[in-house]
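Input record, target 12 of the design panel.
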């Protein structure tokens, strides 16, 4: 067996270091969240217990943790649904060139490079100067769409650029209407990509801080609430909250991955049944 080149060990060490920087803080917070009742915010740990997780579900002296979680969840679902619908419609629209399509494309991409805090400030000013109330479900919703829609649209552009139009032509030859073609042919084929766009939309919204900072109004979302707690809470309860929110994020990702797997399995089963029917 030939010895491995030095570059292999250098790349392995770099990758290991990357994993440490990526997951090290999360693992540290998770460990500290299991401290005993007398535990603090740093090592060494003082006992091991679930005390701070129980304390998290009790009335907090500072902040509104569960209210902010509900707001982030609702806002994330709103952004997710809107991102999926608009991304699909945009992807279908950009399959053919139309007047101003290039300008619109670059305007979409430009929102990704504008500093998030400036977007938050601009949206907040537009709403306030227009006499509209600044609220997480209106101005916050709009500010977050400037972040999630470009990602969703770019994904759908890539999907439709590789889409085989012969499936649509076959459906039309069989008498399907344009809507029936989209519903029964296009959407089932791109379903895994739609799940990916939905995951992007929800997670980007759920974790967004800067674009919500000046557009949430009087009620915080969960990232804003956690940021506020860092200046007021001096116990491991904030670590317990961070651990639970991380677990929730992994659950959402797991559900989406399971949905992709289930969609692929159903598609394979239908193809197998169709093949048996032809045989």
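The sequence produced for target 12 reads:
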């Amino acid at each position: 067996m030939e010895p491995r080149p030095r570059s292999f060990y250098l790349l392995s060490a770099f990758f290991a270091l990357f994993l440490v920087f990526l997951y090290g803080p999360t693992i540290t917070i998770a460990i500290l969240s299991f401290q005993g009742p007398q535990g603090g915010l740093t090592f060494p740990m003082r006992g091991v217990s679930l005390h701070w997780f129980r304390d998290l579900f009790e009335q907090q002296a500072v902040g509104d943790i569960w209210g902010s979680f509900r707001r982030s969840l609702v806002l994330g679902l709103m952004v997710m649904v809107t991102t999926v619908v608009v991304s699909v419609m945009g992807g279908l629209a950009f399959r053919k060139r139309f007047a101003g399509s290039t300008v619109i494309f670059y305007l979409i991409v430009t929102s990704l490079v504008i500093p998030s805090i400036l977007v938050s400030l601009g949206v907040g000013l537009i709403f306030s100067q227009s006499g509209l109330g600044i609220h997480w479900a209106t101005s916050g919703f709009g500010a977050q769409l400037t972040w999630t829609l470009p990602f969703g649209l770019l994904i759908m552009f890539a999907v439709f650029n590789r889409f085989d139009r012969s499936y649509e032509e076959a459906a039309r030859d069989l008498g399907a209407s344009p809507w029936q073609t989209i519903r029964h042919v296009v959407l089932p084929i791109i379903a895994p990509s739609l799940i990916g766009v939905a995951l992007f939309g929800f997670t980007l919204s759920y974790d967004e801080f800067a674009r919500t900072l000046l557009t949430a109004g009087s009620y915080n979302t969960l990232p804003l609430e956690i940021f506020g707690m860092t200046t007021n809470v001096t116990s491991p309860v904030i670590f317990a909250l961070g651990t639970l929110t991380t677990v929730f994020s992994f659950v959402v990702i797991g559900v989406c991955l399971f949905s992709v797997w289930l969609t692929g399995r159903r598609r394979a089963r239908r193809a197998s049944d169709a093949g048996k029917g032809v045989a």
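The longest helix spans residues 237-278.
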